[in-house]
Amino acid sequence: MSVDIDTAAPGGLPADTAAPRPKPRIFALSFSGPGLVVAALFLGISLQPSLLPRAGYVQGLASGITMMIGYGIGAGAQSLWNYLGIPTLKGRWRTVIVGVIIALIAWGVLFSAWRQVGWQNEIRTTFGMESITFTVWPVIIGVALGVSVLILIVARSLRKLFRAVFAWLDRLLPRRLAQVLGAGALLLLIWLLITGLLVNGFFAVANTMFSSRDGATSPGIEQPTSAARSGSPESLVKWDELGRQGRSFVASGPTVAQLDAFSGGGAMEPIRAYVGLKSAATLQERADLLLAELKRTGAFDRKALVLTTTTGTGFLDPNGVNPVDYIFNGDDAIAGVQYSYLPSWISLLADQDAVKETSRVVFETVHGYWSTLPEASRPKFYLYGLSLGSYGVESVLNSISIINAPIDGAFMSGPPFVNDLHTIVETGREPSSPEWLPVYQNGTTVRFMNEEGFAVTAGTWGSTRVVYLQHGSDPVVFFSPSLAWGAPDWLAETPRAPDVAPQMGWFPLVTMWQVALDLPGAGNVPDGFGHMYSKQANALGWIAVTNPPGWTPEQSKKLVATLNATSTTSD
C-alpha cells in the first residue's frame, strides 16, 4: 500500500509542470495522505453522540460514510493544492507539523473510540434503554470498513469515467474547455440518474412493497359490528378496502364500558370514520365518501368532530386519538383518509404534495358542510396530525377557506422540519424562549409543549387553541439542511432540552448527516423520546386544546393513569 502525503510534485516542482505520476487503479491500495488524515478526524467526530442512541450497525454506517466524506475533503484539497501549484513545507518543519497534526488526530480518534460506548449508554440511560458493551465494536468496524470500501470503489469508478471523457474531448477541444464541458455534462447526467431513475425507482419499489403489506390485517384486529364504525356491515366503506392501518383504527379505541368506568356512566359509542386509498378512485371521491360516512354515523350530532391527517401508511396514533374519546365520554367522532402506503420516513420525502392536497380537499369537503350547520348545535371542530400529518394540518391552517368559519383548535405532535408554519412560529419566538420549547406572541393562539409540560407564558389563550407537542430529541422535528453549515440554536442554547445529550456537539457537514441518519430510527425508541409521543403528553395536549368545562387536575391524572393501563399499537 502506498500513501501519498506530500502535496507537491516530485523534486519540489509545481504539480502542473512535473512528470505525471501513475494514476491509481480502482482497486489499487494507494491513498491520499491528506485524505486519510481528514478521514481520521471525521471518524473521531462520527463517534460522538447525536440525538438518538445508536446500535452498532448504525454507528458503523455513520462512521463509514462520515469517514469517506472526510477523505473526499482531504483528497480534494490536496488535488486543488497541486493544481494551483502552491509550494509546500519541506524538511524538519514539515515533519514536525505533520507529526503534530497526526498525533492530535490520533489522540482524538482513540479518545472518541474509548468514550463511544459510555456516551451511548448515557443516552440510553436517559431514554430508559438497556446498556451496550464494547462487544459492539466488531460490528462497528466491520460495517464502517464495508461502507468505506463501497464508497471508495464508486468514487474511483466515477473518477475513471470522468478521465475517460476528458481524454476523448481533449482530442476535439482545448484541454481546459474539455474538462469544464465534460465535468458539467457528467455531473448533470449523474444528477438526473440519481434524482430521476434511482429515486423514482426506489419510491416505486417501496410503494409496491408497502402496498402489499397494506392488504394485511394486524393480529387481534377484527371487523367491527357497530354502525358507528367504518368497515362495519352497515358502513359505506368496505372493510377490506380500509387498508391495514385503517382497519386497526376503526376496530380499536376505548369501549363504552371503559369510558363508563372512567367517567362514572353515560358514555356513548365513539364514532370512527375512515376511508382507505382503495375505497374510491379519486381524492375528491374519497373525501365525499368520508362526508357521507360521517353523515351516516351521526357525527355532526356529536359534541366534537376531530378531522385527522394520517401519517404515510394511513396510521393514526392511538396515543394521539384515544384521549379524545375519554374527554368527551364517547360523544365525539374521529375521521381520517389514507393518502399513501409508505412509512413515515419515506413518505416524508415522497408524499408532501399528496398529504397537502389530501388535507385540503378533505377539509374543504367536511368543513364546508359543517359550516352550514347551526352554530349552536354543530360539534366542536378540531384538527389533529402526527408527523407528516401535522404538515397536512398546517396546510389547512393556512387555507383561506378557514376564515369565515374558523375551527376550535388543532393538536400537532412531532411536526417535521418541512412544516412552514412551524418554522415561522419557531423563528418568531420570544428571544427568552428556547428553540426546543418556544413561546410565540405570549401564547395567545399557539403554544408548545414537551413531556414535561407547556412552555411558561403570561398570555391569555384565545378561543382557538393550537398546540405543538415536540421532543428535543426528535430528529424529525430538528433536522435541517442548514445543520451542514451552521450550529442550530437548540444545540447552542442553555439549558438544552432534557432529552438531548450534553456531549452532543456541532461540526460542519457531519452533524447534518448524523441527524439525518437518526430519522429512520426516530420511531424505534421508548415513548417520551425521539418521535414517540407518550399517552400522558398527548392527553394533556388534548385537554389543553379542548379545554373541557369543569375539568379538574384530578381528572387529568385519572385520564393519564387510565390510558397508561391500556395497551396500544404503533406504526
Helix/strand layout:
Blueprint: E1 2-4, E2 30-32, H1 33-46, H2 56-84, H3 91-127, H4 137-170, H5 175-214, H6 244-250, H7 256-263, E3 271-275, H8 283-297, E4 304-309, H9 318-327, E5 332-337, H10 344-350, H11 352-370, E6 380-386, H12 388-397, E7 409-413, H13 420-427, E8 446-450, E9 453-454, E10 465-469, H14 475-478, H15 489-492, H16 510-518, H17 535-546, H18 553-564
Parallel strand pairs: 1-2, 3-5, 4-5, 4-6, 6-7, 7-10, 8-10
Antiparallel strand pairs: 8-9
Helix pairs in contact: 1-2, 1-3, 2-4, 2-16, 4-5, 8-11, 9-17, 11-12, 17-18
Relevant terms:
single chain; 571 residues; alpha/beta; 2 domains; 8-stranded mixed beta sheet; elongated; disordered N terminus
Description of the structure:
The chain has 571 residues and is an alpha/beta fold. It folds into two domains: 171 residues, no CATH class; 287 residues. 49% of the residues lie in helices and 8% in strands. It has an eight-stranded mixed beta sheet with strand order 3-5-4-6-7-10-8-9, with helices on both faces. Strands 1-2 form a two-stranded parallel ribbon. Helix 12 links the parallel strand 6 and strand 7. Helix 1 runs antiparallel to helix 2 and helix 2 runs parallel beside helix 4. The protein is elongated, with a radius of gyration of 28 Å. The two termini are 49 Å apart.
